[in-house]
Amino acid sequence: MFSFLDLNLVWFILLGVLLIGYAILDGFDLGVGVLHLFTKGDTERRISLNSIGPVWDGNEVWLVTAGGALFAAFPHAYATAFSAFYIPFMILLCMLIFRAVALEFRSKEPMPWWRATWDVAFSVSSIVASVLFGVAVGNLVVGIPLGEDMEFQGTFFQLLNPYSLLVGVFNLTIFAMHGAIYLYLKTEGDLQQKVKGWVVHTTALFVVFYIMTTIATLVTVPSMIANFQKFPVVWLLVPINVLAIANIPRSLYFNQPGIAFLSSCVSIATLILLFGAGVFPNMIISSLGEATNLTIYSAASSQKTLGIMLIIAILGMPCVIAYTSVIYWVFRGKVQLDKFSY
Amino acid sequence: MELDVVLLSRLQFAFTVMFHYLYPPLSIGLGLLIVIMEGMFLRTGNPIYERMTKFWIKIFALTFGLGVASGIVMEFEFGTNWATYSRYVGDVFGSALAAEGIFAFFLESGFLAVLVFGWNRVSPKMHFFSAIMVFLGSLFSSVWIVVANSWMQTPAGYHIVGEGLMARAEIVDFWALVFNPSSVVRLTHVVLGAFIQGAFLVLSISAWYLLKNRHLEFARRSFTIALVVATLTSLAQLIAGHFSAEVVAKYQPAKLAAFEGVYKTEDSTPLYLFGFPNSETQTVDMGIPVPGALSFLVHKDFSTPVTGLDQFAKEDQPPVALPFQMYHIMIALGIYFIGLTCVSLFLLWTGKLFQMRWLMWVFVFSVVGPFIANQAGWIAAEVGRQPWIVYGLLRTSEGVSKAVAAEAVLSSLIMFTLLYALLFLLFVYLLDRKIKHGPDEDEKDVDSTRHYDFIDAISKRKSSASMMDSEVMSFRSNLEAEKGA
Question: What ipTM does this complex have?
Answer without folding.
Answer: 0.82
